[in-house]
Amino acid sequence: MSESAEPAEEAPGAKPVLRVVKGDLTPEELAALVAVVAARNAAAAHAASRTKAAPRSQWGHPARLARAPHRFGPGQWRSSALG
């Protein structure tokens, strides 16, 4: 593919992602090159997404063990279960 071959519909001001500067590639060779570059970018994106830590569950957090003090009085046995 030479530099003079331009895509039929190119967005104004858009830069090409891949450009062959030297050589004359067949369509099959160009397709193989694009497949390799796309696979490498997908692998890098997948590796970057796996490095993010998952949000930690609050189920076993020590703050859940702390309770409010029991209050004495009429009807407080009902509110003790909600608390």
Descriptive notes:
With 83 residues, the chain is mainly alpha-helical. Helix content is 37%, strand content 0%. The chain is built from two helices and no strands. The protein has helices at residues 27-50, 76-82. The model is unreliable at 1-6 (pLDDT under 50).
Structural class: mainly alpha
Overall strand count: 0
Largest sheet: none
Q: Uncertain segments of ≥5 residues (pLDDT<50)?
A: 1-6
Give keywords:
83 residues, mainly alpha, 2 helices, 37% helix, rod-shaped
How would you summarize what this structure contains?
This protein is mostly helical and 83 residues long. Helices cover 37% and strands 0% of the residues. The chain has helices at residues 27-50, 76-82.
SSE layout and pairings?
Layout lengths: L26 H24 L25 H7 L1
